[in-house]
Amino acid sequence: MIKIQDVTVPGKGTGKYLNILADKFPISPTNGISISWLLLDEGVKDGESYPSEVILKGTLAMTQETYDQWGTDDSYVIDWALTELGFTEVEP
Question: Are 87 and 37 in contact (CB under 8 A)?
Answer without folding.
Answer: no
